[in-house]
Amino acid sequence: MSLFRFSICAVSIAATLLTVSIAQAQQPPALPSPDATNAVTLGLMKGFPPPPDKVVRLAEILKYPNIRWAYQHLRELGPTAAVWRGAGSVSPLPAAPRELDALSFDDDKGVRLTVADWQRNTYTDALLVMHKGQVVYERYDLGMQAHQPHALLSMSKSLTGLLATELIREGLIDAGAPVSSYLPELKDSAWGDATVQQTLDMTTGVQYQEDFADPKSGIFQYLIAGGLVPAPANYPGPKTITEFLKTVKKDGAHGAGFQYKSADTEVIGWLLQRVTGKSYAELLSQRIWAPLGAQEDASVWVDSVGTQLTSVGVSATLRDLGRLGEMLRLGGRFNGRQVVSADSVAEIRKGADAEKFKAGGMPMRAGYSYHNHWWIPHDADGTFEAKGLNGQHIHINPAAELVVVKLSSHPVPNTAFTHTLDRRAFAALAEALRSR
Amino acid sequence: MSLFRFSICAVSIAATLLTVSIAQAQQPPALPSPDATNAVTLGLMKGFPPPPDKVVRLAEILKYPNIRWAYQHLRELGPTAAVWRGAGSVSPLPAAPRELDALSFDDDKGVRLTVADWQRNTYTDALLVMHKGQVVYERYDLGMQAHQPHALLSMSKSLTGLLATELIREGLIDAGAPVSSYLPELKDSAWGDATVQQTLDMTTGVQYQEDFADPKSGIFQYLIAGGLVPAPANYPGPKTITEFLKTVKKDGAHGAGFQYKSADTEVIGWLLQRVTGKSYAELLSQRIWAPLGAQEDASVWVDSVGTQLTSVGVSATLRDLGRLGEMLRLGGRFNGRQVVSADSVAEIRKGADAEKFKAGGMPMRAGYSYHNHWWIPHDADGTFEAKGLNGQHIHINPAAELVVVKLSSHPVPNTAFTHTLDRRAFAALAEALRSR
Question: How many CB atoms lie within 10 A of CB B374?
Answer without folding.
Answer: 27
